[in-house]
C-alpha cells in the first residue's frame, strides 16, 4: 500500500509518516505501529 501511495504522488507524506514512527523505511517500523501507520496512509487520499 505504501508503494502505491508513493507512486501516485504521496512520496513526501510517506517519508513523514515513516519518520513519525521512528523509521526511515518500512522494514524499520516497529510492528506495534503497523496498524496506526496503515490508518495514516489510508488517510492520505483525503488531502492530496
TrEMBL record:
Protein name from the UniProt record: Uncharacterized protein
